[in-house]
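Recall that a protein's primary structure is simply its ordered list of amino acids. Everything else, from secondary elements to tertiary packing, is in principle encoded there. The following example makes that idea concrete.
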Amino acid sequence: DRTLFPSLDLTSILMLQGDYTELESSASPALTFIPPSMFGPPEKIHIDMRDTSKPGLALTEIGKGQVAWLPWDVPGMYYRYSLPAHAAVLRDLIDHLLQGKRQLRTNAHPLVEMSLMQQGNRRLFHLINLSGHADTAYFPPIPMRQIRVELAGNYHSARAIRAGQALPLEHSPGATSFTIPSLDQYELVVLE
């Protein structure tokens, strides 16, 4: 279902390895199961491939909310293989469940870890540049530039502590945006 999974507009098949819990077929499942096909040389694989109507996702309305259940281990698959399509399934599903009301949007590289914490009347926004991390080794990280952040909420000030500078803010309905000019290893933005 490309409307539920817009990030997969160029993807038709996702890799599945491991357990799959077979669900009863539904009228129009958002994802469908393709059973294992023949293994072997390129001229033999997938010649017996067939799609089914068995759901790869169950969505259920409960009260005022919605519950999603994936009958296969998408997070585990992403952890093991880091395939962008598995990340897209999770990201699009979360966006669907949040109904477009994400707390944070950014253009940051995926190797920038971010966390938002409450401390009294202010918020602390931490950014860690993990680009220097390589298995058990650590090297100087690649500097990141012009990281744009949009946070839910209305803030009147943002100060980058390591850089020692105030960050200009832009406001839109229900959100505040700012740009971090440079991120080396770590930055802390205090929002009030």
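The chain has two helices and 13 strands. The two ends are 41 Å apart (CA to CA).
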